């Protein structure tokens, strides 16, 4: 599992030559409803143990970027996924709060 800075993820998503990662938002439903990165898949952290195999519907080798509010929950999920054999896996360091501060100041914060 690697940490990924918000600006690095923004550059990755903007690069047409790079395969887009699966953005996995692990926050609670109310948090996701408030703000999220476009095209994110929402699976709350508490549901990951029962639903992690759903990630196998992505093409093989497509990276997973785990996202939460500040990066703590998503780091735990990223470590879980890595141990389960999902890979490559990244954690968005700073979460959506970091994204709002470094990439998209129009994104609501909480």
Can you offer a commentary on this structure?
The chain is of the alpha/beta class. It has five helices and five strands. It has a five-stranded parallel β-sheet with strand order 1-5-4-2-3. The radius of gyration is 13 Å and the shape is globular.
Quick overview of this protein structure:
With 110 residues, the chain is of the alpha/beta class. Helix content is 35%, strand content 15%.
C-alpha geometry:
globular
Separation of the first and last Cα atoms: 26 Å
What percent of residues adopt helix (DSSP H or I)?
A: 25-40%
CA radius of gyration is 13 Å
Secondary structure elements and pairings:
Blueprint: E1 2-4, H1 6-14, E2 22-25, H2 29-34, E3 41-42, H3 48-51, E4 64-67, H4 72-83, E5 89-92, H5 95-102
Parallel strand pairs: 1-5, 2-3, 2-4, 4-5
Can you give keywords for this protein?
alpha/beta; globular
């Amino acid at each position: 599992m690697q940490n990924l800075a918000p600006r690095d993820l923004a550059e990755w998503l903007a690069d047409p030559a790079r395969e887009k990662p699966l953005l996995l938002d692990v926050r609670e439903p109310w948090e996701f409803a408030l703000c999220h990165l476009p095209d994110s898949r929402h699976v709350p952290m508490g549901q990951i143990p029962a639903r992690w195999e759903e990630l196998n519907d992505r093409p093989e080798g497509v990276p997973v970027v785990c996202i939460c509010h500040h990066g703590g929950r998503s780091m735990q999920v990223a470590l879980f996924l890595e141990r389960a054999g999902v890979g490559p896996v990244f954690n968005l360091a700073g979460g959506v709060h970091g994204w709002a501060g470094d990439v998209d100041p129009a994104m609501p914060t909480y």
